[in-house]
Amino acid sequence: MAVAFDEMTGQDGTIRPAYKELSSWLGEVRPDVLDYRRREAELLFRRIGITFAVYGEADSQERLIPFDVIPRIISASEWKLLSRGLEQRVKAINAYIKDIYGKRESLRAGIVPEDLVFQNPVFRPEMNGQKVPHDIYVHIAGIDIVRVDSETFYVLEDNVRTPSGVSYMLENREIMLRLFPELFSRHRIAPVENYPDELLATLQSVAPHSAAAEPSVVLLTPGVYNSAYYEHSFLADKLGIELVEGRDLFVKGEEVFMRTTQGPKRVDVIYRRLDDDFLDPLAFRPDSALGVPGIMSAYQAGNVTLANAVGTGIADDKAVYSYMPEIVKFFLGEEPILKNVPTYRCREEKHLTYVLDNIEQLVVKEVHGSGGYGMLIGPTADKATIAAFKSKLKSQPANFIAQPTLALSTCPTCVDAGIAPRHVDLRPFVLTGKDKVRIVPGGLTRVALKAGSLVVNSSQGGGTKDTWVLDS
Amino acid sequence: MRIQISHDTIYQYANPPAGVIQILRMTPRNHDGQYVSAWRIDISADCRVDAQEDSFGNLTHTFSVEGPVSELNVHVEGEVDTDDMHGLVRGAIERFPPALFLRETPLTAPDPAIRDFATAAKASAKADTLSILHALLTAVHAELTFDVDPTHAATTAQESFAIKRGVCQDLTHIFIACARSIGIPARYVSGYFFRNDGVVEQNAGHAWAEAFIEGLGWVGFDAANKISTTDAHLRVAIGLDYLSAAPIRGTRYGGGDEALTVRVHVDQAMRQVQG
């Protein structure tokens, strides 16, 4: 594997312009001061209580995501390119989902194979022919971006169901402002604090036509046992909207109401952080106690907006991902600004053969997995793991895709031995409203804290960084 | 044949719940060989009923009742003229291409035993799809014993196949699981069946499968009766499995135990005139 591109020192060790101030500051700051601030940051996070739960661990207790105090910096021109590419991608995704549940022109044109859509559990027949308010399906997208050199950004994954992580973007900035005011005074950094306002404006803009002038917006959470519950309560608080669980809502006469101490109150827009499967026991899993019985009938009648819409998984499924460049071209008639990672579809015979022959160099992913589960990183996996994956691949090839192992860019990071480069990715959040697309400059930078590790997922021991987009 | 239906679904609640919400798929539509001449739904409680069409083209009625409700009766009655189409389903609303109906669902996912069974049935028949489906129909009917006791609404094809027992819903799920496992699109139908043995009082509606045959279109297969559908079948709703075609899906807010009574009366309208 080639030496990774470093966000601060590039490929040749020269400090890149955006990092000039940070680099000299890192040279000035005394190690014990940096260490003290690190511990202070951890203390602050503990006090705020920002935690997440790790599924699949026996004790499954709440954990703190490690925070790294060295920011990741993106220059104004890089951000301009990224935000244009993100807007393009999300527009194409919305057009594609509308088509899949509507005219299906992309299927007829052979852009995406029919069986990949219809036999995909994330395709929701219930959405077929269903109008959604203002034709917007994905109101909130978290697009995972990785960088491999000074020019090339790849989209690693589109997250268009219930993407999480934005609370870390906001908290990280707040903590950094508190701990390192002197560093902020040496930079002009675009603000992210307006994200809650932008999100609320987006949600209000997509209210159904039958809503009142001042639409009522709520955040629907699966409850305290969900790994992202902290974020749900954090966002509801920042947006100034009610945080509700399924049992707080009910459906009557094709409208959704919230139980309040002043009696029932109609709800127009639901920012739901509950998966499709659990949303309505009368339409999906009948054993779901987390959802709102009958909510799909209110949705079908056009009396409530669900953000994101039901059935958006048909756009971010890992098997569908590989078709995204064609989807962008087909719906927008434009070349994709952001590239896709070259992807081998194991469902195709010749790709499968290639993957089996070259598995040591590849990353193999389960198409329906997320959070870094069900993944094989060829170069670091042991023989037994590879053998197990090979047999899984042979028995259910359609369940897997494979990609070359990318040399993700690195960013200077505080580790026990001092400061060292660690691999990072970036999840910016793209908001699509009736009026416009809003992207707060920045996002969540995740960092793989283990030396050489490429897995940045918090469930796999990754940490986060504040992300700075320079104003000029 | 003019089929006459009267169908009561009665819920009695020991501790009246604060509210009930239900979605009904209990209204048949017209297609070749099926003409609805009269149909009505009466709900015993005072409520607004909203009619919609679901994504499969089924007519739905949704209502919510504010409690306390101690008893609720969903009464459906009507008359439908049917012709024997020898299983062919023509002129029905089709919202999806057949490819959708190859999809596995939790209720119809095959296990190795079901796959093997389907493959064996296929091997025993001539190569054409229609012959394969008839072989499957015979095999499923022979393999399972009709028994109302061991299974319930949430029983999967795998569970029922393992104990070799079940009701029409289970046989239909197994037939669907088998057909899909050998690449034939198949779907679930809920409806009514007129018995020619003089029994008009039944304790449930009926269920069967439809499978897609290139050149013929959708064809009905009733595994419980080992026949293709005839003018004795009244087709009400279709779906991927029981859940998406279920006559009633509902929930209640609070309350204790409920007692459910279902009375289905399927008769030939002429008989009353003659009698």
Please explain how this structure is put together:
The complex is a heterodimer of chains A (472) and B (275). Chain A is an alpha+beta fold. Chain A has 2 domains: 17-208 and 304-341 and 406-469, no CATH class; 344-404, Dna Ligase, domain 1. Chain A is built from 16 helices and 23 strands. In chain A, the strands form 6 sheets. Chain A has a 5-stranded mixed sheet. In chain A, helix 2 crosses helix 6 and helix 3 (76-100) packs across helix 14. The model of chain A has no long low-confidence stretch (mean pLDDT 92). The mean pLDDT of chain B is 95. In chain B, helix 1 crosses helix 2, helix 1 (112-124) crosses helix 4 and helix 2 crosses helix 4. In chain B, strands 7, 10, 12, 13, 14 and 15 form a 6-stranded antiparallel sheet that branches. A 5-stranded antiparallel sheet of chain B has the order 3-6-1-17-11. Chain B folds into 2 domains: 2-82 and 248-274, Sandwich (Immunoglobulin-like); 88-243, C8orf32 fold, CATH 3.10.620.30. Chain B is built from 6 helices and 17 strands.
* Number of alpha- plus pi-helical segments of chain A: 16
Strand content of chain B: 35-45%
Please state the overall shape of chain A, judged from the principal axes of the Cα atoms.
globular
Our count of domains of chain B comes out at 2
Helix content of chain A: 25-40%
Distance between the termini of chain B: 16 Å
Q: Give the class of chain A from helix and strand content and strand pairing.
A: alpha+beta
List the domain count of chain A as a whole number.
Answer: 2
Count up the helices of chain B.
6
Name of the top-level CATH class of the largest domain in chain B: Alpha Beta
Backbone CA Rg of chain A: 22 Å
- The stretches of 5 or more residues of chain A where confidence is low (pLDDT under 50) are none
On the 0-100 scale, what is the average pLDDT of chain B?
Answer: 95
Query: What oligomeric state is this?
Result: heterodimer
